[in-house]
Amino acid sequence: MNFKIALIRGDGIGPEVVEEAVGVLETVGARFGHSYEWIDVLMGGCAYDAKGTPYPEGTKEACQRADAVLLGAVGGPKWDNLPPALRPEKALLAIRSDLGLYANLRPAALRPALKAACPLRSDIADKGFDLMLLRELTGGIYFGERKRYQTEDRGEEASDLMKYSEMEIERIGRRAFELARLRRKKVVSVDKANVLETSRLWRAVMHRLAAEYPDVAYSDMLVDNCAMQLVRDPSFFDVLVTENMFGDILSDEASMLTGSIGLLPSASIGDRTPGLYEPIHGSAPDIAGQDKANPVAAILSAAMMFRYSFRLAGEAAAIEKAVDLALSSGCRTADMAGSGAPLGTREMGKIIRGNI
Ligand SMILES: NC(=O)C1=CN([C@@H]2O[C@H](COP(=O)(O)OP(=O)(O)OC[C@H]3O[C@@H](n4cnc5c(N)ncnc54)[C@H](O)[C@@H]3O)[C@@H](O)[C@H]2O)C=CC1
Ligand SMILES: CC(C)CC(=O)C(=O)O
Ligand SMILES: [Mg+2]
Question: How far apart are CA 259 and CA 295, in angstroms?
Fold first, then answer.
C-alpha cells in the first residue's frame, strides 16, 4: 500500500526523533511492501522563525490531505516570550482541535527488558503493568477563555476557564469503554468531582455510559489519589480516562514508571480525520542537537500509526518487537538507567531498524 504521511518535525529534539521514526517506517515499508509519500509540514517555533507564525496557512490542509500525521515536538525557550497567540504550543493545540483529535491514547507499559529500571518496589515491578491512559485532548482548561487584567486593589489578576460539554465527555467516555472491551474490561475515570463542577458533569456522564457497558468494570477516582495510586501500583489500572490537563500531567508521571519519558508514544484520534502520532515528551531543549534524545517514543508512535490509522497490526507488532529486542540486548540511550556507555539517537534508531 502507499501511505501519504505529513511530517511535522518541529523544534528541539523533534527533528532528531522524527528522522529515526521515518527510518523505521521506511524499513517496515521495505519488509512488508508499503511505500510512502512524505509531506513536510512547517509548524511550531521553526515556522515562526521562517514565516512569522507558528501555524502557517496550509499546515492544517496539508495534514487533512494526509493519511496520518507524525509529529516530533514543538516549543522551546527561544519562543517563550512571544505573545500567547504566536507561541508554538498554541499551534499544537490548534492542529489538535482543527483535526478534531479529541481522543489521545497514551499507553504506558513496563517493557520486559526494563523491569530493573522501574523505580517501583521490586515486588510491584515484578508484576509489570500495562495501562492505557486516555486523555481528552480538545477541551477543558487548555481551550477555555484566558484573561489577564489589572484590578484596583489586588494588582494583576488572571484566569483560565475550564469548560466541558456533555457531548465532549460522552464521546471520550465511549472511546474508553470501547477500548476497555478490547483489553481487560476495566475503566477508571479520573476527576476532581469533590471540587470542580466540570468534574461533576464528567462523572454524571460517565455513570450514564457505565450502565450501557455492564461487561466493563467501572470506578471513579479523584485525581490526587490517582497520582498516588499510579506510583503505588500501576498494575491496578487498565483503561484510565480523564480530562485534558489531568491526562497531560498523569501521563508524564506514568512515563517514569516505564523507565523514561523518552519511551512513551501517543496517538491522537478523531472520528473521520487523519490520526496524529507523537511522543508524549516535549522538545527537550536541554539535549537538543546533541544526538542524545531517545527515539523510542517517536518510533513506537509510528507503530501506533500502523495499528490505529492503517489497521495493520502485524507491522505495528514488528516495530514493537524490534524495540524490545534492542532493549533486551542492553541498548540504552542516556535517559535510561543502564551500565555501559549510552547510545546516541542515531545509533539507537539504526539498531531498531536492523531488528525489523
Ligand atoms: N507535544 C509537544 O510538542 C510538547 C511540547 N512541549 C514543549 O517542549 C518544551 C520543553 O518542555 P519540558 O517541560 O522541558 O518537557 P520535555 O518533555 O521536553 O523535557 C523534560 C525532560 O525530559 C527529557 N526528555 C524529554 N524527551 C526526551 C527524550 N526523547 N529522550 C531523552 N530525554 C528526554 C528532557 O531532556 C528534559 O530533561 C516546552 O517549550 C514545552 O512547551 C512540552 C510537551 C509536549
Ligand atoms: C502544549 C502542551 C499541552 C503539550 C503537552 O504537554 C502535551 O500534549 O503533552
Ligand atoms: Mg505534556
Answer: 14
